[in-house]
Design brief:
0% strand, 81% helix, 181 residues, Growth Hormone, Chain: A, mainly alpha
Length: 181
């Protein structure tokens, strides 16, 4: 049983998820795609509303069907949302992308922490949970910071390159989620 590898897999999934190359340039990206400032501001609101509405149902899903399934679906929804960003330039389609990202965000919210705690519990190391959770947050923060630096270099080549790269990384997180125990 490779239960002990769950922690590193969650670290990788969260690192990829927070490696948001699009965030530092999102306004420019949306402007490039013809969106007004009002439309640009509505999109993150739609994402946040989706996460808020689905937070409890997604937690129920994870508790009922399993944290692994919840994380797998999360990686799939995130990938689909970014695929839409990669190949669309329509505000209404971007709304669909934000809803998909919100579903993905709600599905992983808590499931990642719960699977880490469950893993530590099975390994009789639950006293290490705070340290492991802190490390997970640190990985996410460093990943986001590094993505910001890299995005500033990639955008010189193409405004779409950060989106394409992050989409590819998100797609690669799907098989990692499938290997969780």
């Amino acid at each position: 049983m490779h239960l002990k590898h769950n922690i590193n897999k969650v670290f990788i999934i969260n690192g990829i998820r927070w490696f948001m190359l699009l965030m530092p340039i999102i306004v420019l990206f949306f402007e490039q795609n013809g969106l007004s400032l009002t439309q640009i501001m509505l999109l993150p609101a739609i994402y946040s509303l989706t996460v808020a509405i689905l937070e409890i149902p997604s937690g129920f899903f994870a508790d009922t069907y399993g944290r692994k399934k919840s994380i797998i679906l999360s990686t799939i929804f995130y990938s689909l949302g970014y695929l839409i960003f990669s190949f669309s330039n329509d505000f209404n389609i971007f709304i669909v992308a934000e809803i998909l990202l919100g579903i993905g965000g709600s599905l992983i919210s808590g499931s990642d922490s719960a699977i880490m705690y469950d893993t530590l519990l099975e390994l009789n190391k639950e006293n290490e949970y705070s340290k492991i959770e802190g490390k997970s947050y640190a990985i996410g923060n460093f990943s986001e910071a590094i993505a910001g630096l890299i995005a500033s270099l990639l955008v010189v080549i193409s405004i779409y390159l950060p989106v394409y790269i992050h989409t590819l990384l998100l797609i690669l997180s799907i098989p990692i989620a499938f290997t969780l125990v």
